[in-house]
Fold:
Amino acid sequence: MAGKKTLEIISPGIMTTVQDIGRYGYGRFGVAPSGGLDSFALRIANLLVGNPEDQACLETMLLGPGIRFLTEVVVAVTGGNLEPKRNKQPIEMWQSQVFKKNDVLSFGSAVSGFRAYIAVGGGISVPLVMGSRSTNLPSGFGGFNGRTLKKDDILVCDKQRDPLPANKRIFAPDGVPMYSDKWQIRVVLGPQDDHFPEDSRSAFFGATYTMSQNSDRTGIRLEGPEIRCKPDVDASIVSEGVIAGSIQIPGDGKPIIILGETVTGGYRKIATVISADLPLMGQIKPGDSVQFQAVSLPEAHLALKKMEDRINDFRRTII
Amino acid sequence: MLYDTPIFRLMGDRSLLVELGDDISPAVNQCVQELFTALDMQPIDGVRELVPSYRSLLVIYEPLKISPDDLKRAIGDTYDHLNQTELPEPRTIDIPIVYGGEQGPDLAYVAQHHHITPQEVIDYHTRPTYRVYMIGFTPGYPYLGEVPDAIATPRRTTPRILVPKGSVGIAQKQTGIYSVDSPGGWQIIGWTPVNLFDPQAQPPSLLMMGDRVRFQAITLKEAFQWQAKRL
Structure:
């Protein structure tokens, strides 16, 4: 499927990568999922431009890129509000926008949230690696040559399936998540919550943590009360599989929320972020405060169902 | 020791950690491999991914397709019907290693730690046929066991920021090979020209859980010849 040169990177921003919904089925080979951290924003962005929801988009962070369009194409920007602009004029987020040849998409500063998603009609065309177009940055494969985008990179997009949507597609504002700088994150206890004494667990849930500067796509490091496991157990355990959202407690007692670049780990995990709140992990920024709230498994599944229903309802309105 | 019945631990709302034993042992790991293989051959509807490790299997599922209770029951059923003969004969893979020098900056430390010579460390390290307990940490990284007690050495107190791909390390009774450039805290005693991870290959990892590995000491010159032959 020959694509068309569509995007020219004029400035790369702090960190812009190609990400789709993620790389699954290769954990047995030590290959992490990668993928857009705010998967909700990525899926909606794709639907807004008429793509299947799992297609490759650009994920950018804090200070977005400058992109010149080499052909007319439909674009949507979702996720954190990084002040997207077309030819220096602010544009609405969570809506489809037609960019004409030579139009420039640029960004201002981060108003809310941390990461924005740029979907382009047809989807970013980079080779599939193990079934995914996501960039695995730590190991340097997938995405665009396994790296963050640089000035002068040219990206190809597959041909838009349908003609440009005649009407603007808009994701209803009441469905857009709120990104504040104070986060209440819902978790399910475990898998090793029983390895922490009662006072550690109540300290964890009573604490207000702050996201450390020293965080990346691998994990969100938190500053705040240190959590100790029971005196008869060691902080490290025999390595085992982990998932995005696992909250591990290393020897220094400072929690780390594992994100999408890790498949195994050797620390005890006190709790795990629920699937419905996982997309928010992409929007917490250094300095934000984070509190955890324990919910039951049925509550977690209900929250996930609500999120999926919201996406399905939107999909139905555009077909 | 192998548990009488698996212990299920919730890892969030979309994965179950199935623990089969409490230690690093061939018997427990073999059981993990059997459960992993059985669930891989006869997939349970709604299961998205299986990640086997030393003593547990992580089962990632789609909670809107299968409930955790149904999933536990299905995994328990499979476990009760595991057949020891299901596993194929393990493959044995020979991996050449250049020990010491710039390629193995911690060889001297490991020798010193045990009051033996570097050559004795090499002799001990090349003696066993190792079991691949799991692949993890980075793509294609094999956790191998077990090294003789005579050379089992704790991790470095300060991890290195960059360990070159191909580096061979020791951490207690485990030995492993860095499959990509990455940070790492294991004692680096050597380096192999063998490529353990190729994202374009199918499968992408040279080694799989349950494989056997033997090491041979080679010179740096032989390593370069080995590389040249494969280019």
Chain B has two domains: 2-85, 92-229. The longest strand of chain B covers residues 2-10. Chain B touches chain A through 46 residues (CB under 8 Å). Residues 139 and 205 of chain B are 7 Å apart (CA to CA).
